[in-house]
Design a protein that fits this description.
It is a single chain. With 83 residues, the protein is mainly alpha-helical. It contains four helices and no strands. The chain has a domain of 58 residues. Helix 1 packs across helix 3 and helix 1 packs parallel to helix 4.
């Protein structure tokens, strides 16, 4: 079983690979701080559940076309598609 922190890093890394950007750039876009994803990956940092949820919604809303969402990680429903 993976942690939410590991899920966030994995989703971020798949996003980076699909978009051809680095983890620091993505971390700046999503979390307003370039070092956050690296610090999460190394276990030196954590995020609140609210930050996690906002980040996952951001990823879902901006997910690259043609890229597969990581298996086993729940993908949030886009705000406009929610009932």
């Amino acid at each position: 079983m993976t942690t939410l922190r590991e899920n966030l890093v994995l989703v971020g890394d798949v996003f980076c690979a699909a978009k051809g950007i680095g983890r620091k750039r993505l971390s700046t876009l999503v979390l307003n701080r370039g070092s956050t994803l690296d610090r999460l990956a190394s276990g030196d940092s954590d995020v609140t559940t609210g930050t996690y949820e906002r980040a996952m919604i951001w990823f879902s809303d901006h997910w690259p076309e043609g890229a597969d969402w990581p298996e086993g990680i729940e993908r949030p429903v886009a705000e406009e598609a929610a009932p």
